[in-house]
């Protein structure tokens, strides 16, 4: 059985960055990353609070119902804000590696292969290294002068 024989598949393109572009965008990226982390942690806390209320033994009273409703509202709000932050980064071709740790990956091309600059919110030099797509997530290669010279 053929899939839509007359229709072409849409191709998705990934925006790649140079090191200099990433450095220029750093203040904005760090702001979005701070917001992303804060909203992620708020979302996790609200979900945890909601689960804790559910696990209470006995019949829930009025205050438990109110606390549960507030936790659900907080969860929805934080989830929505977190999703907006993720969408903002993804619209620029940037992917979230670890929202709790404040780590994102910025795509670039190295030796005709997809590679990623690793940006860490808590490091002095925010761009802490890079890795090839095929490398394990923990890999951090040193940023060389040749990366800084590319436009």
Brief summary of the model shown:
The chain has four helices and four strands; from the N terminus they run αααββββα. The protein is an alpha+beta fold.
Strand content: 15-25%
Radius of gyration: 21 Å
Count the DSSP helices: 4
Our count of domains comes out at 1
User: What fraction, in percent, of the residue positions are helical?
Assistant: 40-55%
Instruction: Based on Cα principal axes, name the global outline.
Output: elongated
Q: Could you give the count of β-strands?
A: 4
Give, in order, the helices and strands: HHHEEEEH
Mean pLDDT: 89
Order of strands in the sheet with most strands:
1-2-3-4
Q: How would you sum up the major sheet?
A: 4 strands, antiparallel
Question: What's the end-to-end separation, in Å?
Answer: 47 Å
Poorly predicted spans? none
Structural class: alpha+beta
Description of the molecule:
The structure is a single chain. With 151 residues, this protein is an alpha+beta fold. It has one domain (19-149). The protein has four helices and four strands; from the N terminus they run αααββββα. The protein has helices spanning 19-24, 26-54, 62-91, 145-149; strands at residues 95-98, 103-110, 113-120, 127-132. A four-stranded antiparallel beta sheet has the order 1-2-3-4. Strand 1 and strand 2 form a beta hairpin. Helix 2 (26-54) runs antiparallel to helix 3. The longest helix is centred in the middle third of the chain and has 30 residues, at 62-91. The chain starts with 18 loop residues before the first helix and ends with a helix. 19% of the residues are buried.
